[in-house]
Amino acid sequence: MAGITDLQQLLRSMQPHLAEEEFVFCSVTGSAEDYFSWKPLAIFYEQEGISLVVTKQTAEENYVEFDNTYKQITLTVHSSLDAVGLTAAVSTKLADHGISANVIAAFYHDHIFVQSRHANKALKLLESW
């Protein structure tokens, strides 16, 4: 099933969902296989190290340093990876209210990570489209 590409249709039907759990972004060394048992939500290889998105609890249990905690808002509409403007529209709306947006686009949905303290406000803003 192909995802939606029309920006207006995406914005009207995105139905944002706020996850309960808190997440952190961290950087680790070694190989990704060393961290599979942590069940990372995301793994990204960067020149400086391996970036992981893991639960706050996992980070604390493994004595990993992190700067902030984040909540995940999933846009439950099936957006196409070829859709143009969704990330920009969402990021701009949140930025206009002083909320940073860390976006991960997966195959079916876009996932927005916002600082935990702004999560409820961000959700309301995204629901107001």
UniProtKB/TrEMBL annotation:
It comes from Vibrio ziniensis. Residues 72-127 form the CASTOR ACT domain. SUPFAM superfamilies: ACT-like. Coiled coil: none annotated. This is ACT domain-containing protein. InterPro entries: ACT-like_dom_sf (IPR045865), CASTOR_ACT_dom (IPR027795), DUF2241 (IPR018717). Residues 2-69 form the DUF2241 domain. The lineage of its organism: Bacteria, Pseudomonadati, Pseudomonadota, Gammaproteobacteria, Vibrionales.
